[in-house]
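Progress report, Aim 2. The chain analyzed during this reporting quarter is listed below.
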Amino acid sequence: MPKKIITVFYIGPECGFKAIQGSIPDHINVITSKPELKSVSKKIKYAHAFIDASMKIPINQKILRLAKKLQVISTATTGSDHIDMIYAKSIGIKVFTLKEDKDLLQNLTPAAELSWALLMAVARKITAASKHVNSGLWNRDDFPGIMLKEKTLGIVGCGRLGQWMARYGSAFGMNVQGYDPFVKPWPKSIKKISLDQLFMTSDFISIHVHLTNETKGLISSDLIGIIKKGAILINTSRGKIIDELALLNALKSNQIAGAGLDVLDGEPYIKAHPLVEYSINNSNLIITPHCGGYSPDAVKIVCQRAMEKVITYLN
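Predicted structure tokens for the chain:
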């Protein structure tokens, strides 16, 4: 007896779509669309499974009520704050994320690499220096860089990504310290320290925590208020983890030397975002469009894993 045709709806990069298409049984039909609300609302009606490698569409109650056939959601991401997990569970939809795949994630480094690239770019004023040359100028005195050797790198969240950052920092001769109340065993390469002490003593601070009720607003205005003067802050986790208004004020007052962000509260709707508006005319803030984990090398791997979980669950 032929197997029932299963429709899997995928949104995300084309390289991920091609990766899952190349490794599926004949009874699975994969459909896709652009990550636009109208298209997703239309096509999710036909899906038995949904693979999300985009995070651009909020999978809320309105969307889930349209998905009458949907049995499982599998994200090719560790983050799931764009999904109404409580409602999905209440209507019997299983949700998988990459948080379950620790062995797989351990060897995926693009997000940590972008964090380090942002740290370097802010420390050496790369974007401003490049614009300077493109405008026909050549004055290095306008772009003094910060030497990393013997500076202190503070890591908030010393899990997989935090430990990669510790490796990079050690390779550059930095002193590495970190805060994380959950990591066990504690990594030997990182000096354990309180969050307050980390902010008061670190020259560079890099944030690597998941967004939860406990971590929302973790980097508060009080914490930013005690940050070491002249420090540089990097965030590639989630925008809601930081009090963004306090960060903006710290940039304006020169309490911190600069910041590198790959995430913003409210993304992708950022045209009127105060930090974006500030960055247009101020070179001490670099913002990228949540592209830390976006590398085709990694996307192919995580999309294939997301599909494997769908097939196993539906079988």
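The domain at 109-287 is CATH 3.40.50.720 (Rossmann fold). The chain is about 35% helix and 15% strand. These observations will guide the mutagenesis work planned for the next reporting period.
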